[in-house]
Fold this sequence. Notes:
The structure holds two protein chains of two kinds. Chain A is mainly beta. Chain A is built from no helices and twelve strands.
Amino acid sequence: AQKITQTQPGMFVQEKEAVTLDCTYDTSDQSYGLFWYKQPSSGEMIFLIYQGSYDEQNATEGRYSLNFQKARKSANLVISASQLGDSAMYFCAMTAGGYNKLIFGAGTRLAVHP
Amino acid sequence: EAGVAQSPRYKIIEKRQSVAFWCNPISGHATLYWYQQILGQGPKLLIQFQNNGVVDDSQLPKDRFSAERLKGVDSTLKIQPAKLEDSAVYLCASSLGTGISYEQYFGPGTRLTVT
């Protein structure tokens, strides 16, 4: 069965520094997608970045990049130049099953300090 | 483009009562999802619709939860009777399709408290 593991319940970072949020996954599928979502205290889930299992290049979206290491089954999110507004819960997720539902990890709470 | 709409935003009920949530997906999105997010956990899929039909309801507690999607657009999720452990945020999401790269767009959620 597919599974996402996020081992960091909470992380702290100073404003303007970079931070890496860890994510490992388990699947027997050859084709799958990996996503990162941000959930501020207001509750909505905001899409950040996507990586396909066959993509050779690591995905980047502005200050977000995904460090994809297929052999290690890891998909870490790197946020560069952290901002106070980055304080939120961050969820790693992967597609699973024939209709590609999303399986989410438990999340990492990021706090950005001034 | 309008996002995913959900109502109500908050609901407080007593156990054994019934409750219904409504979701209006992004126009043109064929796939609709209902997730349950218990405090401190990631969202868990309850049910997934492709147009009018259900394609995954493997984690839906069917003895108390039901859902329908009318004419392939709006959807309602019902709980009857509610239990204390149903206290959670119920998130609706939609996507263009079910390919692995299709982004799911989430609504603001309904926070349910069962007392």
